[in-house]
Design goal:
heterodimer, A: mainly alpha, MetI-like fold, 14 helices, B: alpha+beta, Rossmann fold, OB fold (Dihydrolipoamide Acetyltransferase, E2P), 2 domains, 6-stranded mixed β-sheet, 8 helices, 20 strands, about 25% helix
Chain lengths: ~300, ~375
C-alpha cells in the first residue's frame, strides 16, 4: 500500500494541495457563489433575502433608479478608483527612492533598514490609523506643531482642517501601504547584477540614463507586485475611510458594509461587491498584461 | 613615446578594508601599452590586475598616479566619457533587452542615427558570427554565444581600447581554446588595442603580444611571451609561467654575465646572470625542465648527478623526478622522439643531467 502510494505521483500531488483546496473551496468559492446569487435577489420589508433573478440592484448601481437618474453610486465607485490610483502613485514615488537607497546600502546595514520599514506593522492596523486621527485633527499634533512654529515667527496661523477629510484618508492609505511597496521594489532592485550598472556606464550612459534604461525596467516586477499589493486593498477599503474620512468619505467598501449591516439590504450590497470584484479583476489583468509581470519575472 | 594607447604612470590604488585598515591593491604600477597591441595583465587572483583594468575603464579612480588613453590624462573622467569599452567576466548583458538592443545600446547613448545603428549592429553580429540573433533575449543563448554578444556590444562602438576582464573564464575548456584563437584573429582584423586580464598563463602566452605579470599589486615583469618565459626576472615570474626548477646556492665566481653557483653536496653550475651579483651572494638558479637532459656520459660545463625517484610517462614527454647530490630535487622533461626514449633511466638509478649555461638563469629575488 505504501509502495503504491510512493509510485503514484498523482495521488501525492492531490494530498499536497488538499488542505489549501479545502480552505479555498469553503472560504472563497462557496461564499463567492453565494454572493453572486444574492446579488440577483431582492429583499423583503424585514431585510430578508428573496432569491429571484433580477438585475435591479445592478441598474441601481449604474444610476438607473425608480425615481430617475442618480449618479450617487457611480460617484462612490469613481471616488474609490481615484483614491486607489492616487494612493498607488504616491506610494510608488515615495517607496522607490527609499528602496533604492536600501538596496544600495552596505549589505550589513540593509537588514537593519528593512527591519525599520517593518516595525510599524507590529502595531495593530486600526490603532495606527487612530494615531493619525490624533495627529491630523483640529487640535492635533500636526496643528499644534505648525502653530508653535508659526508662533516663533509671529506669523498668523490658521489650523489645517484635515480631519475628517478625503485627504486624511489618502494620508492614512499612503502610510499604511508604503511598506508593501518598499519590500517588493527593494527585492527586485537588490537582484540587479551590479555589473549591469557598470556595463551601462561603460556604454556611455550617465547615471540618469542608466536609471531609466536599466534600473527601472529591471525593477518593474517589484513595481507591479507592489502596485497589486497596494491597489487591490485600497480600492476595497472601508476601515481607513471610516476612521479618517468620517461620514464625508464614502467608498465602495463603506457602501457594501452599510448595505449589509445598517441598511439591511444584502442583495444590493452583494451587487456592489461583485462590481468591485469585476473592476479590480479587469484592472489587475490589464495592468499585468500591459507591464508583463510573468515575462519580466522570468527574465529578471 | 608616440602611439601609446594606454599608459599607467606610477598608479597606486588603496581600498578601505573590511576592518577599517587600508588595503593596497595596486602599488606604483607603470605600464605602456602600444597602439594595436594585444596586452595581457596576468597574475593570480588578488594581484591587482582587475583593479588596474577597472582604473583604465574608470570604474575605479587611482589613489595616486595617472592613467592616460592616447596621451590624454583621464583624471576623474567617468566611465561613460572614456573612449574605451569593457567585456565583463559575467558578460553583463542587459536581461530585459534583446540581443539587438544590447548591441545597439552604446550607439544609442552616443546619439548615432537610427539607420547607422541598425547597419553597425548587423555588422557587429556578423563579425561574431551571430547574425540574425537580434530579436532573441540573452537568456536564450549559450554561454559562448553570450560571450560573443558581449564582445560585439563593446566592439560595435569602435573603442580606442577594448578592455577584457577574464572574458573566457566562464567557458569550458574546449570552447575557451576556440575563443582564444578567435579573439586573437578578431583583434588582428579590427586593429583595436586589447587589454586583457587573465589568471591563466597559457591563455596569456597564446594570445598576447606582450604580458605584464602582476603579483601583490606590483607589475613584476613586462615583456613578450618569449621574454617572460625564457628570461624571467624573478622567482615568482619563473614559477608562475610554465614549470621550472629552482636550485639554491651561493655565487662562487663571476665572469662578465655568467656566474658560478655552488650548492650543497659539492654541486656547482654555471648560469647566465643579467643582474649584477657578487661572490658570496645567496641566489636561486632556474632551469626549465625541458632544457635539461639525462645523459649517462656527458662532458658539458653543467653536469649534475642524482638519483631517479619517479618516472611519469605522459605520451609526448616523459618526466623524471631526480634527487640531486646535496638533497635538491629537480624535474627533467625528455621529449619522446621514439619509443625507446623512455628507457633513458630507471627508478633508483643514478644518472647525469646536463644543461647549457644559457638554459640556467640566476635570480636574485
Amino acid at each position: 500500500m505504501i509502495q503504491r502510494f510512493r509510485e503514484n505521483r498523482r495521488l501525492q500531488g492531490l494530498l499536497l494541495i488538499l488542505p489549501a483546496m479545502f480552505v479555498m473551496v469553503t472560504l472563497l468559492v462557496a461564499p463567492l457563489t453565494l454572493t453572486v446569487i444574492t446579488s440577483f435577489g431582492q429583499r423583503d420589508a424585514d431585510g430578508n433575502v428573496i432569491y429571484t433573478f433580477t438585475l435591479e440592484n445592478y441598474w441601481r448601481l449604474m444610476g438607473f433608479t425608480e425615481s430617475g437618474w442618480d449618479d450617487l453610486y457611480l460617484r462612490i465607485l469613481l471616488r474609490s478608483l481615484w483614491l486607489a490610483v492616487q494612493t498607488t502613485t504616491i506610494v510608488i514615488l515615495m517607496a522607490y527612492p527609499l528602496a533604492y537607497f536600501i538596496a544600495r546600502s552596505p549589505e550589513r546595514r540593509r537588514n537593519f533598514l528593512l527591519f525599520l520599514v517593518l516595525v510599524p506593522l507590529w502595531t495593530n492596523f486600526v490603532i495606527r490609523i487612530y494615531a493619525w486621527v490624533m495627529i491630523l485633527r483640529g487640535q492635533g499634533v500636526l496643528n499644534s506643531m505648525l502653530g508653535g512654529v508659526a508662533g516663533l515667527f509671529n506669523a498668523p496661523f490658521q489650523p489645517l482642517d484635515l480631519y475628517p477629510s478625503q485627504t486624511a484618508v489618502l494620508i492614512g492609505m499612503v502610510y499604511e501601504f508604503l511598506p508593501f511597496m518598499i519590500l517588493p521594489i527593494y527585492t527586485s532592485l537588490e537582484k540587479i547584477e551590479p555589473n549591469l550598472y557598470e556595463a551601462a556606464a561603460d556604454l556611455y550612459a550617465n547615471a540618469f540614463r542608466t536609471f531609466w534604461r536599466v534600473t527601472v525596467p529591471l525593477s518593474m516586477p517589484g513595481i507591479v507586485a507592489g502596485t497589486i499589493l497596494t491597489f487591490i486593498p485600497v480600492i476595497g477599503t472601508f476601515v481607513v475611510s471610516d476612521i479618517l474620512g468620517g461620514r464625508q468619505v464614502i467608498l465602495v467598501g463603506n457602501l457594501v458594509q452599510r448595505q449589509f449591516l445598517d441598511a439591511r439590504n444584502p442583495p444590493f450590497g452583494a451587487a456592489a461587491s461583485i462590481i468591485l470584484l469585476v473592476m479590480t479583476l479587469v484592472l489587475t489583468l490589464y495592468y499585468t498584461r500591459r507591464f508583463g509581470l510573468g515575462e519580466e519575472i522570468a527574465a529578471g | 613615446m608616440a602611439n601609446l594607447a594606454v599608459e599607467l604612470r606610477n598608479v597606486w590604488k588603496r581600498f578601505p578594508g573590511p576592518g577599517g585598515e587600508v588595503v593596497t591593491a595596486v602599488k606604483n604600477v607603470s605600464l605602456q601599452i602600444a597602439d594595436g597591441e594585444f596586452f595581457a595583465l596576468l597574475g593570480p587572483s588578488g594581484c591587482g590586475k582587475t583593479t588596474s583594468l577597472r582604473m583604465i575603464a574608470g570604474f575605479e579612480l587611482p589613489s595616486e598616479g595617472e592613467v592616460f588613453i592616447h596621451g590624454r590624462a583621464m583624471g576623474k573622467t567617468p566611465p561613460y566619457q572614456r573612449p574605451v569599452n569593457t567585456v565583463f567576466q559575467s558578460y553583463a548583458l542587459f536581461p530585459h533587452m534583446t540581443i539587438g538592443e544590447n548591441v545597439a545600446f552604446g550607439l544609442q547613448m552616443k546619439g548615432v542615427a537610427r539607420q547607422e545603428i541598425q547597419r553597425r549592429v548587423g555588422e557587429a553580429l556578423e563579425m561574431v558570427r551571430l547574425a540574425g540573433y537580434e530579436r532573441r533575449k540573452p537568456k536564450q543563448l549559450s554561454g559562448g554565444q553570450q560571450q560573443r554578444i558581449a564582445l560585439a556590444r563593446a566592439l560595435v562602438n569602435r573603442p580606442e581600447v577594448l578592455l577584457l576582464d577574464e572574458p573566457l573564464g566562464a567557458l569550458d575548456l574546449k570552447l575557451r581554446k576556440e575563443m582564444q584563437l578567435e579573439l586573437k584573429k578578431l583583434q588582428r582584423e579590427v586593429g583595436i588595442t586589447f587589454v586583457f586580464v587573465t589568471h591563466d598563463q597559457e591563455e596569456a602566452l597564446t594570445m598576447s603580444d606582450r604580458i605584464a605579470v602582476m603579483e601583490g599589486g606590483v607589475a613584476l615583469q613586462v615583456g613578450s611571451a618569449n621574454d617572460i618565459y625564457e628570461h624571467p626576472n624573478c622567482r615568482f615570474v619563473a614559477d608562475f609561467i610554465g614549470d621550472t626548477n629552482f636550485l639554491e646556492g651561493v655565487i662562487a665566481q663571476v665572469d662578465s654575465n655568467k656566474a658560478q653557483v655552488e650548492m650543497m653536496g659539492g654541486v656547482s653550475v654555471w648560469a647566465h646572470t643579467p643582474q649584477r651579483v657578487h661572490v658570496g651572494q645567496s641566489v636561486t638558479v632556474t632551469v626549465r625542465p625541458e632544457k635539461m637532459h639525462i645523459r649517462s656520459t656527458a662532458t658539458d660545463v653543467n653536469q649534475v648527478t642524482g638519483l631517479v625517484t619517479d618516472i611519469v610517462y605522459i605520451g609526448t614527454d616523459t618526466h623524471y623526478g631526480i634527487l640531486l647530490d646535496g638533497g635538491q630535487a629537480i624535474r627533467v622533461r625528455e621529449q619522446n622522439y621514439s619509443a625507446e626514449s623512455r628507457l633513458l633511466a630507471r627508478e633508483g638509478e643514478t644518472v647525469s643531467v646536463r644543461f647549457a649555461i644559457e638554459a640556467a638563469r640566476v635570480l636574485t629575488e
